[in-house]
Amino acid sequence: MSPELPASRITSDEGTISASHAVDESSTRALAVEVRGLHKSYDGVQAVDGIDFVIRQGEIFALLGPNGAGKTTTVEILEGYRSRDSGEVRVLGCDPRHQRSLLKSRIGIVLQSTGVDPYLTVHETVTMYAGLYHHPRPVDEVIDLVGLGAKRGERVIRLSGGQRRRVDMALALAGDPELLFLDEPTTGFDPSARREAWDAVKNLASLGKTVLLTTHYMDEAQYLADRVAVMAGGRMVAEGPPSTLGSRDLATVRVRFRPPAGALLPVGFSGGAGPDGFVEVAVEDAVSDLYRLLHWAVEEGVPLEGLEVKRPSLEDVYLSLTGSAEEGANLTRPVRRAAGGKGAG
Amino acid sequence: MSAVTLTLSQVRYVNKAFWRNPARVFFTFAFPLMFLVIFTSLLGNYTVHIGSVSMKSSTYYVASMACFGVITACYNNIAIAISSERDAGILKRIDGAPLPKGSFMGSRMLHALLVAVLLMVLTAAFGRALYSAHVPGGFLLVRFLLMLVVGAASFCALGLAITAGVRNADAAPAIVNASIMPLLFLSGVFIPFGKSTPDWILWVARLFPVKHFASGMMAGFVGTPFDWTDVVVVAAWGAAGLFLAIRFFRWEPRAA
Questions:
Q1: ipTM for the complex shown
Q2: Does residue A343 form part of some domain?
């Protein structure tokens, strides 16, 4: 697979907004997607219950949430497949429901479950779709971009599930869209295929394309997304860059290690070991507390087996966010309980 | 890109996929010819009377199996293929791309029409070779082709229309056959009408398009009088089908 794209594809317009990670520019950039007060119900059940968010041009935005959270409904409203009950929605400046045909040629879509004709080859399928757009991307380039170069002459019926998913990705890219919707794009991929797909998405973002991604995989959101929003029960429960979502960058650091039996630990670390012999302690001031612990260990010649310094992972934050939305509890609850030096094993 | 270019390019892909699907090709082409052989062998050679015209039963069956073949290629094939593509998510994906609905439907109809013409030529050649059936020519051929095109397009439109009432791909063959098989019998396609055919059957045949289409085909193959009402009735059904197809077409499977 060759992730590089010919330089000629990068227009001067896109060149000026190259890096999607340039935070300083992000606030001044035009909005690719704007959603305000979006509501949608099916048979009296609120699938989407008043959400707001924006996606800036060139940004990779990930929508996370458990099944039934309203992610796919939201995405399908933006794609123009579904009508909305109320709220403002703008996609590339268009109303996706009333200006759908205008929008279709400017967006690319990977649906959660979708198909293509099993009797056509990869190359024929991509060519057919590319032919529907005004300025398609070269077919062979698209096939290489998703890593199906070796399978271009193969009929779709003979491809594996992961390879078919990559055909979906190729079709979404065929029209060289400004905005790409990826609804759980790597479900069913093996780890190396997933990594290749991620690289393909990163490449697009570097060309100034905007990506809206929904996923169940935290590592995917962490690796790809500039910003993450978490949905649960039809509402937005958190939004921010993956590194600071749910204030996890500010959350208390936890230290975990296994001291030798009977060792007299320094103040603040004497919470008592769990059944596996490990001590796990939340520390207020990571730098000085760790210094005290390590200094003590070196002085006393005590091995700190399996030493770890941890912050809540994106997954921890996600689980507490989506769990708390159901229980009506607070996000910071598990973090706060751990604070105060009372180590829980 | 004009809608015409888009439609024609779609026809090419629909055609490629069609010929690579052995089951679909087999049923489309083998059934009418197989039925032709079975009916003529099973029922022996007798004389069929239609109005003032008498003909050999084999000649009758060449015409009526040609009619049956066109209906299968258009109505059955489109309805079953569209239902299964809808269940497989193929249609939803197309709906997300900038292909106008008219080009999509037009390409399916045009392809079925081409298959129908090919099937007609094969049946006529087969009938001519084996049963020395009459093959239309001259001005009759023009009227015959008009009936063929109007009939094929109308049955395509009806096939598209019925997909709106098909719940899922499993139900498609059942609904398609339940709607067309009784009509084929009640229109005298499989067994010719006799003197004692009851009035209600004649009325059913008059109301629905199958008998009218069969009569138009018959005029070409056996020289029964060509009646423009047949073309008009079939076209009216086709127009109604097209209206319903455009109005109620679903790109996505019905939610379970």
A1: 0.89
A2: no
